[in-house]
């Protein structure tokens, strides 16, 4: 189920990327001021990439990202990376250690693949909400109402609609 939810959210991201003009992807957004849609997309993809590429070792460190500039400047590279991540998401749950930089040292926390999938899902949705704000000024973009909205918020809104009827 977690893999399916992540696939859906990444699918929405891919749908957006397929609509975006290159300059709107890579240039700083007038709304976001200091960042671009591409930078937010790169950040989303890098965290998924860390989880998947470090899965076999059993130690995941999100601080150890590649920071590939091409993922924020070339929309086609970002689309290809989304597809690559989607193809690798369905893995068995297992115990992981999450390694975090803390000042000049590292801390490790017990976690699991499924817990980190939850984290990446929420992280992706959070950044999609920011991306949605930038896209609101682009009149050629069509986003589903669920883009950048947590599943729990969508479910709550549906339950409120049902209770009102």
General description of the model:
With 165 residues, the protein is mainly alpha-helical. The chain has a single domain, classed as Up-down Bundle (Four Helix Bundle (Hemerythrin (Met), subunit A)), CATH 1.20.120. The protein contains seven helices and three strands, in the order αααβααββαα. It has a three-stranded mixed sheet. β2 (95-102) and β3 form a beta hairpin. 27% of the residues are buried. The model has no long low-confidence stretch (mean pLDDT 93).
Sheet with the most strands, sense and barrel status: 3 strands, mixed
Number of helices: 7
- Protein structure class: mainly alpha
Strand content: 5-15%
Over all CA atoms, what is the radius of gyration? 17 Å
Give the strand line-up of the largest sheet.
1-2-3
CATH topology: Four Helix Bundle (Hemerythrin (Met), subunit A)
Q: Label the CATH architecture.
A: Up-down Bundle
Helix content: 55-70%
Which class in CATH terms?
A: Mainly Alpha
How many β-strand stretches? 3
Report the span from N to C terminus.
30 Å
Mean pLDDT reading: 93
Question: Which regions have little confidence, pLDDT < 50, spanning 5+ residues?
Answer: none
Order of helices and strands: HHHEHHEEHH
Count of domains: 1
Query: Given the C-alpha coordinates, what overall shape results?
Result: globular
The CATH homologous superfamily name equals dinb family like domain
